[in-house]
Amino acid sequence: MKKLIVLLLIVPMFTLFAQSKEANISKLLKLTKFEEQMKQLSDGLKAGLMEMGLSAHPKGEKLTEVFEKYLGVKSIVSEMKKGYVSGYDEAKCNKVIEFYESDFGQKIINVELDSNTPENQAKTQELMKNFMTNPPSDTRKQYLQEYIKNTDLIKVQTEISTIVVELMMNNMNKILPQEQRKSEGEISMGLQMMKTQMAAQLEQTVEFTILAKYAELSDDELKKMADFFATPAGKWYMKSGFVGVENGLKSLAENFTKGLTDALK
Prior knowledge:
By secondary structure, the protein is mainly α. It has helices at about 1-30, 35-50, 60-70, 75-80, 80-85, 90-100, 105-115, 120-135, 140-150, 155-170, 170-175, 185-215, 220-230, 230-265. α6 crosses α14. It is globular. The termini are far apart. The model is unreliable at about 1-20 (pLDDT under 50).
């Protein structure tokens, strides 16, 4: 009877913790406009597949349904969210929430979202060219390098880019017209070449890309952002996001490939 009483006392505590955990993660994702960020990712993937001929395929409607099932924004949000759930740390999550509740935190999120719109991507490219001929101050470059290091940005970007490239290359022959298809050898060689080029390009351009992306931030704001991601809370936030990419996005891409194969039978 005593064991039963203890169990009955513990169950509500676990329930309250689970509710608090879910509420905190939902609040964090809302503050960081996570769904809007994932929509940009989903739209980019869809545009790439459409360019390869997804909608023009004889089974285009069915293939588009497969895309929405596995790589639509709701699916991506659901899977990527698991990264924050699996390694949940209440104290660190609260610190991240506090940061993104501030005007400065919201400014960073809005800058990140705006930089990914088609009109601002062209502006970013122009700024990158300008930085090559008119480099920023050493102080600004130092803060930028600290931000890249603290967020492990190159590793994160490389993982996302690799998943996207593999997704496109592995499904190329399923979507392209017969006369445009490549041999398995050509696809394998092309995939390896793209991965190598992509890694080298990220190393070379990441500083200019981030400088252009956060051009409207002052030096002090850039330092403040870099400093936050050096804290345990900032590192937890980035690590949780990376786990979501590494597990969730990779799994969705693999399931999409399987779903596409089944839909074409």
